[in-house]
Amino acid sequence: MKKNRLNILIAASEASPLAKTGGLGDVVGSLPAAFKKLGCNVSIVIPGYRHALDQIKTTRSFAEILPVTLGRQKITPEILESELAPGIPLYIVRCDEFFDRSGIYGNSQGEYFDNPERFIFFSRSIPVFCSAAGLNPDVIMCNDWQTGLVMPLMAEGSLPHTAGVFVIHNMGYQGLVPPEKIDLIGLPDRYYRMEGLEYYDSMSLLKAGIAYAQAVTTVSPTYAKEIQTPEFGSGLDGLMRSVSNRLHGILNGVDYDEWDPETDRNIKANYSRGNITAKKICKTELLKAMGLADRLGDRPLMGMITRLVDQKGCRLVAEAAEKIFDMDIGLVLIGTGEKEYHDMFVKLQARFPERFALKLDFDLDLAHRIIAGCDMFLMPSLYEPCGLTQIYGLRYGSIPIVRATGGLKDTIIDPKESRDGATGFKFKKFSASEMLMAINRAVNAFSNRKYWQTIMTNAMSKDFSWHRSAKKYLSVFEKAIAARRGNK
Fold this sequence. Notes:
Layout: E1 7-11, H1 23-37, E2 41-47, H2 50-55, E3 60-63, E4 68-70, E5 73-75, E6 78-85, E7 88-94, H3 96-99, E8 106-107, E9 110-111, H4 115-133, E10 139-143, H5 150-155, E11 163-168, E12 176-177, E13 198-199, E14 202-204, H6 205-212, E15 215-218, H7 221-226, H8 237-242, E16 247-249, H9 279-289, E17 301-305, H10 314-326, E18 330-334, H11 339-351, E19 356-359, H12 364-373, E20 376-379, H13 389-395, E21 399-403, H14 406-411, E22 425-427, H15 432-447, H16 449-461, H17 466-486
Parallel strand pairs: 1-2, 1-10, 2-7, 10-11, 11-15, 15-16, 17-18, 17-20, 18-19, 20-21, 21-22
Antiparallel strand pairs: 3-6, 4-5, 6-7, 8-9, 12-14, 13-14
């Protein structure tokens, strides 16, 4: 095997821009290009969602595939081939019964009731498709619970020359299969034990991926440590400690072709580390577009682009809102999530209409404008496996204020750690008071224009491109391949 000349298949439930709900889609959409630049052959397989197929201009039926067993049913998907990007093949598992829907995992009424069936079917189709199509990847990189079942299928003999690497993007999503649906998994009984998939009275597809992969990775070094503890392990901390010798924390990268203020076509004016004056134009445009007071042009403006859920620290923001606005600063927030937070933030906007702008939606164009136009970016997460928006904030000179957890801890340098090398502000305890102290420190630094420009320059100098992370993945892949083939 020539070094770096690997054949890699990435299996995932999301791939930006075709299907995305969060960081998983960003990773699968941008990491393959970094592998390709390192000399690898890389391809991707995703489900055939309605909106993904609507976006793809050309596809062709790729292979005659045998029926896929799902409990007592045999269902034959159609495999379509296209490209995610030039030179990066995209394979689509089309089965309209499961994937011809308005959402990826659910709709406004909640998650789809048959998500276990949908992604058991998707996982079971992957080895069948590879065999029918004559694909023999050196490694298959599976992502989160939606593809976790691929790992025990390989342990049962599927793809015998392929190594399995399982990536945990978020331990909080277990992929639980209730007792009445366990037969759909289709594994021998020995897999349904504590050392296998069993998770209390259910089976966990996330656990399936962790237990049977040759290597397990997650998306930051700190998160790799955190998930070995009861606080962050979601009931699997013992398992994570048991696989610590094959567990690796690799920071996500970002696509600077899309996220760079020098070239970003979504923002009012382009700027760079060497000439940041046009950032002021972006701020002025954002204030006007969001209906905020003109006088905030000279005061700090914070941004948040987030899911409105407990994990993201929304409750802390709501609790601290009055004291935040007492500092005479503005806040722009966009996102969707739980109705409780929708209602809470709508009421806050009514109380502080000139200081708080809210959009209960996700708008990618507006997200770019917020990151360019804000002075600060707030991420007070309870936990954050990696996080990407704080990295975007760094490149745009929008200084992150984050809780020191997961990838937020790994990517941000606080003045308390290095005054001259600071890139943002961190707080440790998950509390509104701790968050307010960090915001206050940032506001005080903002008033010292010379020091604030030092922090901006430091932030914009950081490089979190995929190249370095991709090289670390290749090292893990090679070890996984050796482990897989050494056991044969």
